[in-house]
Amino acid sequence: MRGGLTLVLGVLTGNLLGFARVGVIAYLLGTHSAADSLAVAQGPIDTVNAVLINSMLFAFVPMLTACSREDRAALLRKLNRVFLRIFAALSVLLIVAAPWLMRLLAPGLDPQYFGQAVNNLRILSLSTVAAGAGALYCALLYTDRRFAPTAFYQAAINLLTVVCAVALWKWFGVYAFAIGFTAGAWVQLAIVYTASRSSLDRQDRRECEIPWRELVTRPGFFVIYAAGIGLNIIFTRAYATHAGAGMAAALDYCMRGVGVPMALLVSPLSNSLLPELARLRALLRIREALRLIDKTIALAAAVAAAGCGFALLFREPAVRLLFQHGSFTQQSTQMVSAVFLGFGPSLLGWSLLEITARSLFAMERPWLPVIAAGVPLAVNVTITLWLQSRQPVWIGVGASAGLFLGFVVLLAMAHLNRKRWVVHP
Hints:
The structure is a single chain. The protein is mostly helical. The protein has helices spanning about 1-30, 35-65, 70-95, 100-105, 115-125, 125-145, 150, 155-170, 175-200, 210-215, 220-240, 245-280, 285-315, 315-325, 330-345, 345-360, 365-370, 375-385, 395-415, 420-425. The chain starts with a helix and ends with a helix.
C-alpha cells in the first residue's frame, strides 16, 4: 500500500510539474514555428525514453526479484555492461542521423526552423543514455520495494526543464527547454544510482552466468509493443507539420490533456492489478484472473468515457485557463481546442489498450499485445491519408480511431483464446 501511494504521489507530482512545463512553453513559444521545432524533436525522444524505461522494467524486475541479493547485484552489473553500450550507441545514432530523422519526422516544418529542430533533437538525444541506465537501477530498487527514488522520474525532468527554461531563455532561447529536459534525465539517474549503492557495494564480485544474448532479447516483446504504440503518435505529429505553423505544437499541448488522465487511470489500476494476476496465474486460477481483467477493463472504460466526455465539453475554457498567456494567444486557444476535439477521444482507446496489454503481459501472453500494437498505426495511416485534411479538428482523428480499434482487436483476440488458456494455462 505504501509503495502504491508513493508511486501515485510521484505520478501526481510529475504531471502537475508537467503542466508547469507546458505552461512555460506556451508562454514563451505559443503556437509559432519555434514551438513546432521543439515539439517534433522532444516528442520522439519522449517515446524512445519511455520505450527503454518500460521495457527494462517489464523485462528485468521479475528476473532480479527471483535472484538472491548477491546474484541480483551480479546480474545488474552485467546488465549495465551490456545495455550501456546499446544506450550509448542509440544516442550517437540519433545525434548523427538527426538531419535525416527531422526530414522524416517533420516533413512539413518551416525550413527556417529545420536547423533548430535538428539541434533540439541532438541535445535531447543525450537524455537517452540516462533514461535507459536509470531504468536498470529503478528495476533493482523495485525488487527491494524502494519506490520513492523511482517515483519522481518525470517530476525531475519537468522541474529541471522549467528551471532551465526560465534561467537560460535569455541566452539559449528554445534550446533551454532541451537542455533542461536532458539535465533532468541525468539528475534522476544520479538519484537512483545513489539510492542503489547500498545494494551494490558488496565484497562479493561473483559473475552472472546468464548469457548476454538472452539478456538482450528478453525485452524484445515490450520494445515492439511500446514502439508500435509510440509510432502512432509520431506519425500524427509528422502529418501535423503539413497542416501549418504551430499545428505540431498544438498536438503536443493536447497530449498533456490526454497524458495526465491516462497516467492517473492506467498506473494505479495496472500497478494494483499486475501482482494479483501474477499470483492467480501461479496458482493456475486462470478463470479468476480473466474475470478480474474484465472487471478492471469495465471500470476503466466507465472512468475514461466520463473523463473524455468532460474534457471534450470543457476543452476551450480549460485551454484558455491553462495556457492563454504571453505568446499563447486566443487564436492559439482555438487551434488547440480544435485539435483536441479529434485527438481527445484517444484517451478512451489508449487507456483501455494499455490496461489490457499490461494484463496480458502479466499473464505471460505477450504475442497478443505485440500483434495489436500494429493496429493503431495501420488505421491511423489509412484514415489520415484518406482524409488528407489540414483542418485542425481532423489531425488526431486517425490516432483516436486507431487506438480504439487496437483495443477492440486485442480484447477480441483475448476472448477467442480464453478456452485454450483455461485448459492449457
